[in-house]
Specification:
The chain is of the alpha+beta class. The chain is built from 25 helices and 8 strands.
Length: about 700
């Protein structure tokens, strides 16, 4: 998931990513996200194009949005009559809606604009928006005005009451009830955290490292990868730490030394600059938590999530580790036995071995070679098939908006229709380029509301580009990622039933946010689903059902060690924020976490914390991937018998997607399942043994 630096109060929609399907092989680093943001464009810039089109336009629109919001803030405070919904809470809602659009645009422009000056202007806008949001949350006059409203008079049903209660909770969590000096310090901390988060994300985004290898080091790589990486003038091939290079090389390259060298480059991105940045972030978070009456940042951060407490998260991580560790250990034994065929002296599986030897085991014991299915997954076909599938499943229709302006020629604009009515606009920024966000994410750009306000979002990936290679062959894992991210996108576009900014879009509890995306991954393992669009790029033949069966059986192997890797990340992010950072040695802490939770040994002279972007955005909450997966596996029990059942899909859309943040996540799940969720489906999945086919 993209690093999200929320504004301290009511920061609007999440920025969602999963750099890969669950479990993700490496967590992505990412830039800081926009707080809820911007309003109407400045009048004198109206003819200059969209907000992202120039530094001047972006700055003008940002300032115009802030001016509108500030005017509403002053109106709320200066009202002298009795406090009502009409004169206080409705303007309060409008105040943050005035910031929503430009914040979304700034988030996208800061991560995707091809113009560095625009990226910098977007970051400056994000800082201004965060400062305003923080100031409102710490403003006693605004708080007093809101608190004086009788919430049951004028509220529009239970949703209005929920809106009011959430505002009051967030005021408290912002620190509005503290003394003046404390409020000033909290506001300063919020501003520092936004800037440090941007610095951290930019460092990783721009720190592209590489190795140069002899052409023979590409033995084992797919033919199209080799063709795309010809030797340079020095006769060597350049392989970068960007994902389109890194993952195929780690998975297929037979040269273990080259895999190790590339991995060491990869794990040290952002170092040393981000070591100091992260230390400061940890110290500021801990200071803020203490000022607000919490013992640690992890405790503060858990309060408004499904988990509710740091103790519950710690117990959850421990429960997962106990369940998954035996499965991971069994996987490691198989992997080591296979490695020892190549190196009889080997005593352990290194991190740079994991993808390569998992692939070897799947080839040799499960009769499946991932390279053989790539011709069935040409990017244009996958995209078209994905649209058709989601359309048929959820009653949606997608239409290309050819005349809609975008920030780069490769970006496409699309409209989504529900039951024949336009329900939202989204952008696809799907291929790598210099200066662009390097992972996979959904960036909400505007929250949709029941008033008719249209939701907007951008889906960002770095998949093969048909403009460079017409076939643009994808790994199946990339197809899974595409489905995952599209699940986030549909969630944001469908959640437009609320009247209030803080309840529309994906404003669910953060540890529920990955559920819709992880659920939709399940469709990528079904032969009937894949045969709708997975056609051989040369022959047009649909992917054979027996091939999908082999692929699915092979995927069962390695899930233990991959999930244990995710638990390691969950523990790392949680425990890093559940202790006092004063005097903390990040390298010693890393060694501790590796020794307790990692299925692989630590890499000497590596600095995982310098590019683990979730530490900035999710902070202590990486556990949410597994928390959400528990729920997603349970929700899938209603679909398992018939993946294309429209009745079930419609019920899911209405119960889980459309409410947005209008209801507690646990209640939405209970309505859909007819019971509270539990871990039975997750345990059945993780403990189901992989059965070799030969």
């Amino acid at each position: 998931m993209r690093t999200v630096t929320r504004a301290p109060l009511w920061a609007g929609a999440l920025i969602l990513a999963a750099c890969g399907a669950s479990p993700t092989p490496e967590p992505p680093a990412a830039p800081a996200a926009a707080p809820v943001s911007a309003a109407a464009p400045a009048a004198d810039a109206a003819a200059a194009g969209p907000s992202w089109s120039s530094v001047e336009r972006l700055a003008a629109d940002c300032d115009a949005a802030l001016a509108t919001a500030q005017g509403l803030r002053e109106r709320i405070v200066k009202n002298e009559g009795p406090r009502t919904w009409a004169n206080t809470l409705e303007p309060f809602n409008e105040m943050f809606l005035a910031l929503d659009t430009i914040g979304g645009v700034a988030g996208v422009a800061g991560a995707m604009s091809p113009d560095k000056a625009i990226r910098e202007a977007a970051e400056a806008c994000e800082q201004k928006l965060s400062k305003f949001s923080s100031a409102v949350g710490l403003d006693p006059a605004v708080y007093a005005a809101v608190a004086a409203v009788e919430p049951r008079k004028g509220a529009k049903g239970p949703e209005g009451q929920r809106f009011f209660e959430k505002i009051m909770r967030d005021f408290r969590r912002a620190g509005v009830d503290r003394d003046e000096a404390t409020r000033a310090r909290l506001e300063a901390i919020d501003g520092e955290l936004v800037k440090l988060g941007q610095d951290y994300g930019r460092e990783v985004r721009e720190d592209v490292r590489f190795i140069e290898v002899e052409p023979k080091a590409l033995e084992g790589l797919p033919e199209d990868f080799v063709k795309a990486h010809p030797p340079g003038d020095n006769g060597k091939v350049k392989i970068t730490t960007d994902y389109p290079d890194f993952y195929p090389f780690e998975r297929y390259a037979q040269d273990a030394e080259a895999r190790q060298t590339l991995y060491r480059k990869f794990i040290n991105r952002g170092f040393p600059a981000n070591k100091a940045a992260l230390k400061k972030i940890l110290e500021l978070r801990q200071e803020k938590a203490k000022l607000l009456g919490f013992p640690t940042w992890a405790a503060y951060n858990a309060e408004d999530k499904m988990a509710k407490s740091a103790e519950r998260i710690e117990a959850f991580v421990g429960e997962l580790a106990k369940t998954v560790r035996p499965v991971a250990d069994a996987d490691l034994k198989v992997l080591l036995a296979r490695k020892q065929k190549d190196d009889p002296k080997a005593t352990r599986i290194e991190t740079w071995d994991r993808f390569y030897y998992a692939s070897k085991v799947r080839e040799e014991q499960y009769a499946f070679d991932a390279r053989t299915v790539r011709p069935y997954f040409s990017f244009p076909q996958v995209k078209e098939g994905l649209f058709k599938l989601y359309g048929d499943l959820f009653g949606l229709r997608f239409e290309r908006l050819a005349d809609e302006p975008t920030w780069h020629a490769s970006v496409e604009a699309w409209a989504m229709y529900v039951d024949g009515k336009k329900a939202g606009t989204f952008y696809l920024d799907m291929h790598p380029r210099e200066g662009k966000y390097k992972h996979a994410a959904v960036f909400p750009m505007q929250v949709g509301l029941a008033t008719g306000r249209e939701p907007r979002a951008t889906l960002v990936c770095n998949f093969p580009d048909p403009g460079k290679d017409p076939k643009a062959l994808m790994e199946h894992q990339q197809v899974v990622t595409f489905f995952h991210e599209f699940g986030h996108l549909i969630h944001h576009l469908a959640a437009n039933q609320s009247q209030y900014f803080s309840l529309g879009g994906i404003n669910v509890e953060w540890d529920f946010a990955e559920v819709p995306s992880q659920l939709l991954e399940e469709w990528t393992w079904d032969a009937g689903v894949l045969q709708r669009f997975a056609k051989h790029v040369d022959t047009g033949e649909a992917i054979p059902a027996e091939t999908v069966a082999k692929m699915r059986a092979a995927e069962e192997f390695g899930k233990g060690v991959a999930t244990m890797r995710q638990i390691f990340y969950a523990a790392y992010s949680f425990f890093l924020h559940n202790r006092d950072p004063q005097g903390l040695d990040l390298d010693a802490f890393s060694a501790e976490m590796y020794g307790t939770y990692s299925p692989y040994p630590p890499v000497p002279e590596s600095h995982i914390y310098a590019s683990f972007g979730h530490l900035v955005g999710y902070s202590s909450m990486y556990y949410t991937y597994q928390w959400s997966l528990v729920i997603a596996k349970d929700l899938f029990t209603r679909f398992a018998a018939d993946l294309m059942n429209n009745e079930t899909a419609t019920a899911y859309r209405k119960a889980i997607l459309e409410p947005g943040g209008g209801r507690d996540a646990a209640d939405m799940v209970k309505d859909f399942l007819g019971r509270p969720y539990d871990m039975k489906a997750y345990r059945a999945w993780i403990t189901k043994p992989a059965v070799p086919t030969k």
